[in-house]
Amino acid sequence: MSSQQSWYGKLQNIDVRYVYLLVMILVAIPILAPIGLPVGKLSEETARLYDYIDKLPSGAVVVMIADQSPAAAAECQPGFEAILYHLKSKGLRALFFAERTDAVPFIESAMLKIYGATSKHPDYGKLIANLGYIPQGELGVRGLASDVFFTGRDAYGNDLKILPFFKDLKNARDWSLAIYFGASELDHVVRQVTDPFGCPTGGGVAAVLSTRIYPYYPSKVIGFLIGLRGSAEYELLIKKPGEAAAGMDAQSFGHALIIILVVIGNIGYFMERMRRGGGS
Amino acid sequence: MGVIETISILIASAMTISLFSYLWKENRAFRIAEHAYIGAAAGYAVLITADAAWKLLDPFLKRGDWHWLITVLIGLMFFFFFSKAQFWVYRYPVGIVTGSGIGVFLAMAIKSQLVEQVRLTTLVTLTKWDPAGKTPFDSAIIAVGVITALSYFYATAEHKGPLKYSAKIGIYFLMAFFGVCFGTTIMARISLLIGRLRFLFFTDPAWTLIPVAAALLIGTIVYEKRIKKTK
């Protein structure tokens, strides 16, 4: 094939495994030897979520909806932990539940990291409560929003009616914020919590989901963390740099490489077209 | 660190490396890790779901509200999926679950995703309502983007005259949207890689398997090349 003789033709037919290897190496280098590239200008979406939480009065209820699969956890979990840390430092109440079975361990992992314990923590049942997995996605969210005692017991078998956390709660009208963490869709939280009960929605979502949230922002979704970058920004806002901030160098390197590859790919494509005389 | 935790980390490390090995080519280590992951995830999901279902049901039964056992019967009807002769029974729980899901969804979807979207888009574009510090220029872009992108999907009339140009501009807005989606997808995938690499590099003793895997990979490549040469 004549196209394989030209350098751009060769580039277009390069074994994709070299690209994987290059990405792997370029992402690994800044992880092993951090450079400390600046995160950049604080995004408006992160700042609005932080400001909203920061202004909540002590004791306000924030519902943390865990829908992060192991695949989305790399992006969502640092944000989940950063927000939980913020809630703890402000004396806000955090109510957790998981929308998917594989998100259950991420709630416990965040509680262990921020509070050092789960159900044995002295604040458990007062400032934090974990309902565990609630099945049926949107139906489950609606059930809980309509009646906070919907599940009857928490993840550890405690009767919700005897926990002080729930003493002044009836439904989602008593919540100050519902934050969705995951990569699936946040629309159902707006549908079943924000619109019928007036509780605003927040998000700590995988970057790929961000484009679907903008139609609700900022009237329904008051702010959200976009992927690892949003989590890193939140970590910096609470002055507790963690996993996300540490990963930003690698993220920047990875993006730079992809941009270069896209440019090279396009140059190759257009040169090949020109060589063929402008035809497709 | 206890023995069980050490073994867990080594298994997680081996699984991660095995799954990454697919980037080189399909191989046995990848298949073992893939099947083990699917099996473990399915088993875990069944356990957690059963526990959640029992948790929801238990308070009603303790109060003596036995009629809630009907929900268990409806749930058990799902198992008729495996019966060729009584497959029709399976359709009832599917109908109940789908129907209740659609009912809850539709009731709010019309308000949240149609009426409210139209109302807020109109407010942003046609009035001075300014929820996110948007400038008139931003509002104008939103207005043009919404109208032209919608016109691209307008199939009742032939795309001629003004509609042709409107649809063409709409395509550019759609392409910009797809570009952003592509960029954020890349961001998500790289974040995933960062998460796994940080686990492999900084979790003791996960990193010990990296040189082992590298040696195995190089050995296999060299071995395969020799076999090829001898052939």
3D architecture notes:
The complex is a heterodimer of chains A (280) and B (231). Chain A has 280 residues and is an alpha/beta fold. Helices cover 49% and strands 13% of the residues of chain A. In chain A, strands 3-2-1-4-5-6 form a six-stranded parallel β-sheet. In chain A, helix 2 (16-32) runs antiparallel to helix 10 and helix 4 (70-90) runs parallel beside helix 9 (227-237). Among the domains of chain B are: 1-64, no CATH class; 77-129. Chain B has helices at residues 3-20, 28-62, 69-76, 87-126, 136-152, 162-202, 209-230. In chain B, helix 1 (3-20) crosses helix 2, helix 4 packs across helix 5 and helix 5 (136-152) crosses helix 6. The mean pLDDT of chain B is 88. At the A-B interface, helix 2, helix 4, helix 6, helix 7 and helix 9 of A face helix 2, helix 4 and helix 6 of B.
State the end-to-end CA separation of chain B.
Answer: 50 Å
Known CATH architecture of the largest domain in chain A: 3-Layer(aba) Sandwich
CATH class categorisation of the largest domain in chain A: Alpha Beta
**Biggest sheet of chain A, strands in spatial order?**
3-2-1-4-5-6
Overall pLDDT score of chain B: 88
Q: Which whole number gives the mean pLDDT of chain A?
A: 91
Q: Describe the biggest sheet of chain B? A: none
- pLDDT < 50 runs, ≥5 residues of chain B: none
Please, how many domains of chain A? 2
What percent of residues of chain B adopt helix (DSSP H or I)? over 70%
Q: How many helical elements of chain A? A: 10
Q: What is this structure's SSE topology?
A:
The complex is a heterodimer of chains A (280) and B (231).
Chain A: H1 7-12, H2 16-32, H3 44-54, E1 61-67, H4 70-90, E2 93-98, H5 104-115, E3 128-133, H6 137-146, E4 177-182, H7 187-197, E5 201-205, H8 210-213, E6 221-226, H9 227-237, H10 243-275
Parallel strand pairs in A: 1-2, 1-4, 2-3, 4-5, 5-6
Helix pairs in contact in A: 2-10, 3-9, 4-5, 4-9, 6-7, 9-10
Chain B: H1 3-20, H2 28-62, H3 69-76, H4 87-126, H5 136-152, H6 162-202, H7 209-230
